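Input chain follows. Return structure tokens only.
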Amino acid sequence: MTAEKQAPVGIEAKHVTEVFNGKNVLNDLNFSVQPKEIFVLMGPSGTGKSVLLRLIAGLDEATSGSICINGTSLKEVKRKNKYVLGLVFQAGALFNSLSIFDNLALYFREHRLCSEKEITKRTERMLEMLNLKGIENQIPSSLSGGMKKRVALARGLLMEPDVLLFDEPTSELDLLTASSIIELIGSVNRRLGITTVIASHDILLAKSIGHHIGVLQNGTLEEIYTPETLLHSDNAFIKNFLNPTINLDHPQFPSFLL
């Protein structure tokens, strides 16, 4: 179906800036993601995590700066189809008009990559790998949030990506279901060695499976952490982000109560 699998790839961002309506959403970002690692992008809502993820995925183009995969710019990657980037959307982006099987098979059929026999073989193998056997004839709307996340991951993996990108993979899930998704992503990374970038506000995810963590603050990325250095950081913003203070006598938004 595809050419021989390439060695794990790395990602490098240099001076990446993104401007919307005259406002800098991302400011001169510089960081690298090592081959086979899980890199977690964290930060409060509205700090540009999903924007940066879309830039890495090649869905949008940065106002300035560059993002390269193994030294090749994303423009060249897209033009030459040199690498495959799989993006697992926050809401799953599954089609309710299609069965789970047809959702998973869609990529192969649209790109005419292999025969129906091979599609069935690959899809059934992925369903089994992610413990999804038996749901192939259901539609997405009949599944729980956790099951939809797993199906979305299965679809991403079927693309045989060189880079796997996740946008808030544990959002809208209870703690137990979220922990199972975290384990699944970590296990897939350990087993397949796919370079992975995750945009998330989930501290449990970051400290459990992240190799390196970048925390966005007002569109900037001041420092790259390991789970250990993140949890022991003396940075006031990081400390408040990880352990916010709840004070009813002095609330953060007093005007709301007026």
